[in-house]
């Protein structure tokens, strides 16, 4: 069999791709290959030094059959001799593959050289049956970049220089051949060796000189103050400068940066051009702009326009709290909004750049969520450049066994097959080289790429921390390290690029400028106006009570309904959706009351036709978790990806605003933070995040606390994000009842948010339109009742949409004589209907008034006072809620209501008993509690 194979030259020429595919198939599953080929590959695996089975790698697939030259016509091939050379050739290809997979483990990455490298037998030629005698032999290098044949010694030298120098490359986990080949051509073609001219080298030195000198200047001028020094990772500043100066050549016009604390002040001054004097003022407690609360200096953001050889680059550093990586999805949302504004479908003009800490990158789950968003339709931004400032220490932990369970902190990025470029921070040229490679990869493939900048942290976690307490040996090494600037300056002197005196002059020039509070040179454009900048001035200084007509003429309602109920010809609707569509036609005609799904759809249709964009995301937003929205129609006879879906709200008018509804990934934290970032850059779009159940927002509490609730008071950032939280006690247990209303209200102050709990469908229509039509951009939180979506009493007449506006308070007009009312019940949400039913059952319509407070914050004090004034004889006012007493709105509204009580009035409450759980899990107990607090609310004299 074997002789027959060789005799027929199956191993040569045009059969190569076929045999390569067979080989990779064999490596994945030997039983799947034909018997004759399995026998042949089995014999290869039994060759000396090949005891361990290979793993399927595409480089082997691409180069396997380039093992010997094609025989000359008529020449016989020696099966024995060819078999031996075949074994050696395969061994060489395996060695090349091993370096591609594992070479980074032997790379010179650690500036401190603390850890002994583990010798990997896979990188030893002897493991593959290659000996010293083979070093002078010529071998085909397969898909490796370089001459077709080289001596084994030269192959080995090239592999070590490419994969085991100051750069270590991980890319073999990438399954797309084109992307993998691109990385190979880039690094193997250059042997991972940068080649910069003298001018570029001087600029690199100038950048890291600025980075180091600023840190040392601040260390002596502001002794003991926190700044989270960059010392040990100064090459990052050179890399960012390289990125900014070179990205415009590829059409990039904006870079949006997200980063935590480490080196942030350095980036502000040396990258974005913030004046040192302004930074000094912040150190001295005198910020340039007074905000309601403000924030510490190493949380602040900044934007500037920087000149480059190919035009201005707008660079923006996002504001970020101490929750480190939470800024990452915020940046991604901001980038997507900016791309949308530019109508950049290729996602080339605005690029996100995220700087991470080593422990935070792999340890905080929001990065997993953000990576998961990166290639989805509704969230993709065309790829992110990630830079990990790898200090090799997590906060105060020095043992990697306590930091992570993976070999590298960057391994989390492999989930999306991002290539990872590890680089020694003491080699700033290599750092700039991999930055260029990362930029080119991102712009070529529109995918994420990661730079692992291996450096160290000269000081402790902050300037008041003593790192010797936990890392004594590491910091003994650091104390002896001269710094990357000194090492690079010495290198340039040795190369004849500059003199030692010139290097010292750079330090002095920078210090002299700092003494004046200035920059060494002009780094930003001062009078440049960007074409796509957002003007927020129309929303400054406005009030939530700004009068706004949100009604929609009946003719417009019917015209819009006709459009969003149209179904393409030949499109088969599900029977349920067909009934919904026909029902909406009847609602617009006034034949049926308007339900909540119709109210929402009408609001969206009217907004997009007026030119506003609408963006809705959530885990079931297209259909709606409770199957009420149906914004996307699905053809029952075709798959989604075969034009089997249709979105009616994208077909309202020729020049309409964008409408996008997204079924998001299952990660509330990343998605909500993303939508916040998007909304912060899109005042002309209704941006909505919808929780599948209201309490699921708990998983995004950091985004709520640090951005939504406090972004304006800390950083002056306006945001019109709308959040819809299904909320309501229907006996569905602790996790599906409460959206934690009390938490949201506790976060309310300084008119920072709007909290509403509507009880009628038309209220939903008006509040959504109000959010855009009113010149006011604050977060809107809607506590939406699940039960009311199909509850007939909560539906509205079509006239309620063609007239009126959102009512912060809905009074009670059921009684004949308001002056006879003895008790007033105040409530919010669906509990109103339970109280109405209880009142009717007890025949108390003339004794008890029920007032709905639809907007809980900002509290509508005047409207509530006016409504209470209608009942002068009411001596009892009761706040009624379906949440337990220690939850819900009671404790947050109590003081506001007490201020409205008359001299002879008392205020009390009726609610479920205080509980550690948001709700009970037993239906019988739920019903009993409901009956009890309704009875309490309607019983006099108690």
Automatic annotation (TrEMBL):
E1 component of the 2-oxoglutarate dehydrogenase (OGDH) complex which catalyzes the decarboxylation of 2-oxoglutarate, the first step in the conversion of 2-oxoglutarate to succinyl-CoA and CO(2). Homodimer. Part of the 2-oxoglutarate dehydrogenase (OGDH) complex composed of E1 (2-oxoglutarate dehydrogenase), E2 (dihydrolipoamide succinyltransferase) and E3 (dihydrolipoamide dehydrogenase); the complex contains multiple copies of the three enzymatic components (E1, E2 and E3). NCBIfam families: 2oxo_dh_E1, PRK09404.1, PRK12270.1. It holds the Pfam family OxoGdeHyase_C. It is an enzyme of class 1 (oxidoreductase). GO terms for biological process: glycolytic process; tricarboxylic acid cycle. This is 2-oxoglutarate dehydrogenase E1 component. Coiled coil: none annotated. The keyword Transcription regulation does not apply. GO terms for molecular function: oxoglutarate dehydrogenase (succinyl-transferring) activity; thiamine pyrophosphate binding. Belongs to the alpha-ketoglutarate dehydrogenase family. Its cofactor is thiamine diphosphate. The keyword Oxidoreductase applies. GO terms for cellular component: cytosol; oxoglutarate dehydrogenase complex. Its EC number is 1.2.4.2. It catalyses: N(6)-[(R)-lipoyl]-L-lysyl-[protein] + 2-oxoglutarate + H(+) = N(6)-[(R)-S(8)-succinyldihydrolipoyl]-L-lysyl-[protein] + CO2. Keywords: Glycolysis, Oxidoreductase, Thiamine pyrophosphate. Residues 594-791 form the Transketolase-like pyrimidine-binding domain.
């Amino acid at each position: 069999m074997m002789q027959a194979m060789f005799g027929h030259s199956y191993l040569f020429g045009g059969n190569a791709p076929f045999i390569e595919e067979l080989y990779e198939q064999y490596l994945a599953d030997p039983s799947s290959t034909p018997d004759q080929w399995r026998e042949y590959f089995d014999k290869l695996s039994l060759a000396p030094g090949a005891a361990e089975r290979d793993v399927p790698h595409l480089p082997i697939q691409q180069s396997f059959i380039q093992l010997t030259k094609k025989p000359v016509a008529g020449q016989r091939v020696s099966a024995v001799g060819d078999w031996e050379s075949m074994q050696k050739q395969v061994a060489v290809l395996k060695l090349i593959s091993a370096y591609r997979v594992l070479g980074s483990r032997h790379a010179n990455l650690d500036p401190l050289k603390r850890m002994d490298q583990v010798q990997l037998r896979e990188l030893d030629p002897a493991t593959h049956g290659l000996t010293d005698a083979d070093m002078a032999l010529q071998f085909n290098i397969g898909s490796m970049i370089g001459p077709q044949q080289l001596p084994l010694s030269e192959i080995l030298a090239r592999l070590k220089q490419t994969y085991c120098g100051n750069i270590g490359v991980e890319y073999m986990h990438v399954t797309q051949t084109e992307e993998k080949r691109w990385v190979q051509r880039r690094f193997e073609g250059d042997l991972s060796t940068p080649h910069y001219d003298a001018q570029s080298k001087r600029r690199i030195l100038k950048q890291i000189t600025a980075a180091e000198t600023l840190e040392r200047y601040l260390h002596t001028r502001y002794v003991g103050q926190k700044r989270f020094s960059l010392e040990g990772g100064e090459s990052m500043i050179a890399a960012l400068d390289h990125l900014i100066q070179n990205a415009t050549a590829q059409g990039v016009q904006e870079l949006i940066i997200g980063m935590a604390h480490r080196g942030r002040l350095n980036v502000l001054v040396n990258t974005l051009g913030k004046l040192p004097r302004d930074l000094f003022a912040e150190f001295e407690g005198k910020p340039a702009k007074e905000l309601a609360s403000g924030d510490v200096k190493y949380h602040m953001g900044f934007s500037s326009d920087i000149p480059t050889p190919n035009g201005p680059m707008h660079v923006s550093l996002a504001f970020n709290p101490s929750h480190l990586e939470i800024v990452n999805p915020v940046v991604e949302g901001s980038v997507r909004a900016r791309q949308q504004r530019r109508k950049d479908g290729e996602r080339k003009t605005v690029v996100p750049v995220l700087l991470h800490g080593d422990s935070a990158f792999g340890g905080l789950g929001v990065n997993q969520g953000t990576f998961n968003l990166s290639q989805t339709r509704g969230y993709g931004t065309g790829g992110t450049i990630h830079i990990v400032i790898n200090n090799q220490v997590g906060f105060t932990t020095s043992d990697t066994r306590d930091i992570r369970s993976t070999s590298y902190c960057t391994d989390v990025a492999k989930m999306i097959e991002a290539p990872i470029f590890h680089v020694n921070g003491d080699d700033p040229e290599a750092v700039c080289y991999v930055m260029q490679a990362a930029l080119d990869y991102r712009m070529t493939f529109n995918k994420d790429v990661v730079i692992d900048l291996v450096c160290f942290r000269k000081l402790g976690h902050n300037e008041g921390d003593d790192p010797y307490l936990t890392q004594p040996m590491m910091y003994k090494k650091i104390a002896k390290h001269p710094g990357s600037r000194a090492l690079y300056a010495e290198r340039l002197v040795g190369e004849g690029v500059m003199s030692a005196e010139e290097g010292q002059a750079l330090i002095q020039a920078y210090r002299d400028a700092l003494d004046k509070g200035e920059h060494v040179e002009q780094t930003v454009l001062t009078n440049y106006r960007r074409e796509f900048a957002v003007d927020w001035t129309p929303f400054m200084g406005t009030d939530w009570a700004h009068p706004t007509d949100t009604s929609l003429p009946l003719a417009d309602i019917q015209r819009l309904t006709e459009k969003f109920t149209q179904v393409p010809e030949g499109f088969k609707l599900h029977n349920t959706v067909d009934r919904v569509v026909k029902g909406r036609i009847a609602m617009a005609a006034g034949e049926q009351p308007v339900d909540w799904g119709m109210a929402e759809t009408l609001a969206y249709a009217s907004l997009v036709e007026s030119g506003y964009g609408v963006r809705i995301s959530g885990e079931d937003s297209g259909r709606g978790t409770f199957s009420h929205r149906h914004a996307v129609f699905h053809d029952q006879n075709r798959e989604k990806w075969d034009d089997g879906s249709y979105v009616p709200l994208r077909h309202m008018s020729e020049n309409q605003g964008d409408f996008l509804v997204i079924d998001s990934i299952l990660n509330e934290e990343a998605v909500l933070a993303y939508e916040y970032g998007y909304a912060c850059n899109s005042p002309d779009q209704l941006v909505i995040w919808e929780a599948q159940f209201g309490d699921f927002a708990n998983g995004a509490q950091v985004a709520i606390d640090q951005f939504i609730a406090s972004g304006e008071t800390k950083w002056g950032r306006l945001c019109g994000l709308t959040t819809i939280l299904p909320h309501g006690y229907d006996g569905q247990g602790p996790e599906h009842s409460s959206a934690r209303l009390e938490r949201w209200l506790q976060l309310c102050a300084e008119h920072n948010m709007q909290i509403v709990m509507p009880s009628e469908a038309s209220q939903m229509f008006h509040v959504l339109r109000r959010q855009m039509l009113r010149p006011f951009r604050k977060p809107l939180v809607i506590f939406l009742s699940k039960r009311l979506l199909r509850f007939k009493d909560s539906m509205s007449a079509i006239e309620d949409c063609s007239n009126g506006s959102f009512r912060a308070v809905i009074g009670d007009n059921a009684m004949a004589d308001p002056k006879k009312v003895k008790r007033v019940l105040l409530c919010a949400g669906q509990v109103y209907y339970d109280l109405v039913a209880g009142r009717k059952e007890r025949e108390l319509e003339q004794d008890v008034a029920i007032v709905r407070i639809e907007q809980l914050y900002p509290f509508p004090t005047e409207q509530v006072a006016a409504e209470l004034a209608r009942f002068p004889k009411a001596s009892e006012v009761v706040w009624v809620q379906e949440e337990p007493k220690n939850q819900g709105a009671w404790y947050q509204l109590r003081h506001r209501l007490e201020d409205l009580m008359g001299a002879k009035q008392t205020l009390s409450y009726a609610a479920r008993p205080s509980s550690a759980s948001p709700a009970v899990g037993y239906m019988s107990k739920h019903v009993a509690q409901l009956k009890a607090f309704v009875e309490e609310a309607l019983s006099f004299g108690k």
